[in-house]
Amino acid sequence: VQLQASGGRLGAAWGSLRLSCTSSGHFLGSWAMGWFRQAPGKEREFVAAISWNGGDIYYAAPVKGRFTIARDNAKNTVDLQMNSLKLEDTAVYYCAVKIGAGTYEYGHWGQGTLVTVSS
Fold first, then answer.
1. Is 84 left (phi over 0), alpha (psi -120 to 50) or beta?
2. Is 23 left (phi over 0), alpha (psi -120 to 50) or beta?
3. What is the DSSP letter of 104?
4. What is the DSSP string of 15-80?
5. H-run or E-run covering 96
6. Burial label, 94 (beta-carbon count in 10 A; 0-12, 13-18, 19+)
7. Which of 12, 26, 53, 61 is most exposed, with minimal Cβ within 10 Å?
8. Residue 48 phi/psi, 5° resolution?
């Protein structure tokens, strides 16, 4: 599965950005999906996840209440709406497919999209 993440750009603190993840050759609606991020000098961390039908959604504590993950299986997209941006949200954001039963067992990482938040 090849994933393409897009929407990353320079954003203002307290502003909003919307990231999108899609696949040109695979139907994402069969899998649970997740968003992760990796800030400079830090390890990649979990951000949010959504089940195949959107019925189950999980957020990491730092983004809960500010970010919203959603999917549109008809459009083959999984989006991450990011509101009330903080400087610490600066990172490369990756979408991934859940490939196993483990909580953070994800794979097929896309190329990532860079989000930079400025004050």
1. left
2. beta
3. T
4. --EEEEEE-SSS-GGGS-EEEEEE-TTS--EEEEEE-TTS--EEE-TTTTTTEEEEEETTTTEEEE
5. strand 91-98
6. buried
7. 61
8. -160, 155
How far is residue 74's CA from residue 94's CA, in Å, rounded to a whole number?
21
Residue with tokens 């999980």: 58
Q: Both tokens of residue 88?
A: 């610490």
| pLDDT band (50, 70, 90) for residue 67 | very high
pLDDT tens, position by position, 24-60: 888 999 999 999 999 999 999 999 999 999 999 999 9
